[in-house]
Amino acid sequence: MSETSSDYQFVNYRWEPADADGLTPLQELVYRSNILGSDQRITNTGGGNTSAKLTERDPLTGEDVEVLWVKGSGGDLRTAGPENFSSLYQDKLLQLETLYRSAPESGAKTAIEDEMVGLYAHTTFNLNTRAPSIDTPLHAYIPHAHVDHMHPNAVIAVAACADAERLTQEIWGGELVYTPWQRPGFDLGLKLRDICLANPEASGVILGGHGVINWADTSKACYDRSLDIVDKAARYIDQHDRGKQTFGGQKYEALEERERDAVLAEVLPFLRGLVSRDGKMIGTVQYDETILRFVNSRDATRLADLGTSCPDHFLRTKIKPMLVDWDPASVDIPALKRQLEAGIERYREDYRSYYERCRQDNSPALRPASPTVCLIPGVGMIAWGKNKSESRVTAEFYNCAVEVMRGAEAISEYVALPQQEAFDIEYWLLEEAKLLRMPPEQALARDVVVVVGAGDGIGRATALRVAKEGAHVVCADLNLERARQTAEAIMAERGQGIGVAGSGLSTCGPALALAVDITRRDSVEALFRDTCLAYGGIDKVIVTAGVFMAPGQSGMSDEAMFDISYAVNVKGAWIVGTSAAAIWDAQQLRGALVLTTSVNAAVAKRGSLAYDTSKAAANHLVRELAMELSPLVNVNGLAPATVVKGSTMFPRDRVLASLDKYSVPYADSDDDDTLRDKLAGFYAQRTLTQQPITPEDQAEAAYLLVSGQLSKTTGQIISVDGGLHEAFLR
């Protein structure tokens, strides 16, 4: 057995005595799990589980008892902590066999096998609330202290071969035993026990079409065994690698970056609309060398149609992907769109037929029939999910499937699971129960919201507010650094999410920072193009960017004030709205546009003629765009009044000028925040509510306008001004 990192070629050896020594047995299990999960070549996101049978003091009797600590339902090995592990009385788990055997009918896929899952919680040790995994009996019935069940691509490649049993013997000799595919459950746990007893020299089992489970008497030995198994499989595949003839050789060449991005920018919103018939989807794009080698190959059509093998894979990727037979050399985008549309229709029909052919009397209802993985020669893969994390995991899992097919085809012939077996996993009542236990989706969880002006003030507050409701937020601003700060604040709150996949901008998490100058159409179009490359499309656009040119500001004539004010406050908003319209039209999904105007549009006063008239024009722009973009897009306006806090429109010199104008006392030594508070307090006294107006107040109104709660409202201006009677509707 290998002991050092230099002994391995295809996995990373990460067991460090300095880190592991001194850990408690449970901490050592967590440590082992984390370092196994940190290497994607060993297991995929959320995949696999680990366990240890440890001696614990029973809180009821005070006696020592054997407890199975096993990774519970959900969670990911890479990030798991002790709270992610179930703790179960080992003797009670073993006693469940008597109940299982007493059923009139037992075995794989019988009613009693599913009923057993509900009994695992009754064996809980010390009131642990972590729900036990379906895989619990696979660990409980193996008569060894430490067990790892992994989903390594190289091992699944062997397990998915037509002659997997022969290859198991050839690669590992008597170290591993092969057992054909069987859906995980109580019966498989008993079979693994019998294999252990019949093969005392073995240290693991290759699970046909699934993965590997192995064991040892110490945690480190179990870790070493897991790496040995994976590395041997990967070495064997590498020795038989087919090089340029992988997947039958290349049929197409990949597009150059500029052409590829142009195709994606044109196709992604269109494709998003097609796959979102049963609910909006978020995309992840991948075009690295590995995925392009597959989609450009001669065998891609045959292999893609076979479908995936490992249950973890097709629960996300569906039974198979959709591959269009498009020649990228033509760069014929209209033809590609026609093929995508026809391909989606065929896929949906095939999926419905698959459901009807395989369904049982008690099967859950048909799920959305659109593909979650779309493959385009010369371009790459687009994976879809209900949010960015899910689409990224879907992409990761199809990457795994591609590597499985590559390995299997190098050493033998790839064989996917029979469709009935795949269906019985995909529509398993226990999997359905997991879906039903998931918390309700947040209001904007399936939306891509572009906030223009997100660097500070109202824009920053709005970006944070919609992110709180689950939105995927593009923080756009003329000042990219400020936009990044807003995006980073969102990421700090929500995290990157799960899944390791994507190329370029599409590797992003739930927030992304992009630069934009809304006075230039090419800049705005680049913003929306990059948004599509990151997420697949757009849903809501909120424009908070604006400019106020203070009278007498150095170097500015009245004419220059008008030019800049109208360029940003009117023309810029028009450019954003009309540029977004092209994407909304391609998607044919309902959208929303919110423009920030001002109560100044309705209140005449001295000293801000350029600003006030530009905002009056913006008010009418809202109404005109509502007409132009109907019925697909709701367009409304948000009219703030004197939002001083956090606004770049109120630099110190403007605040001082306003305080002087209204004879509000202040001291030259007052800092900027104190001065702003004094001005905000003065403005508040002019309103009916007598309260300062904050960016968060505006953000709440902006969220309301894009939340869907006002879906029948368009062409309207909502004032958030504290009750400024001068701005009352006349």
TrEMBL record:
Gene3D superfamilies: Class II aldolase/adducin N-terminal domain (3.40.225.10), NAD(P)-binding Rossmann-like Domain (3.40.50.720). GO terms for molecular function: oxidoreductase activity, acting on NAD(P)H, oxygen as acceptor. Residues 28-237 form the Class II aldolase/adducin N-terminal domain. InterPro entries: Aldolase_II/adducin_N, Aldolase_II/adducin_N_sf, Bifunc_RhaD/ADH, NAD(P)-bd_dom_sf, SDR_fam. GO terms for biological process: monosaccharide metabolic process. It comes from the Bacteria. Keywords: Oxidoreductase. PANTHER family: BENZIL REDUCTASE, CHAIN DEHYDROGENASE, PUTATIVE (AFU_ORTHOLOGUE AFUA_4G08710)-RELATED. Belongs to the short-chain dehydrogenases/reductases (SDR) family. This is Bifunctional rhamnulose-1-phosphate aldolase/short-chain dehydrogenase. The lineage of its organism: Bacteria, Pseudomonadati, Pseudomonadota, Gammaproteobacteria, Cellvibrionales.
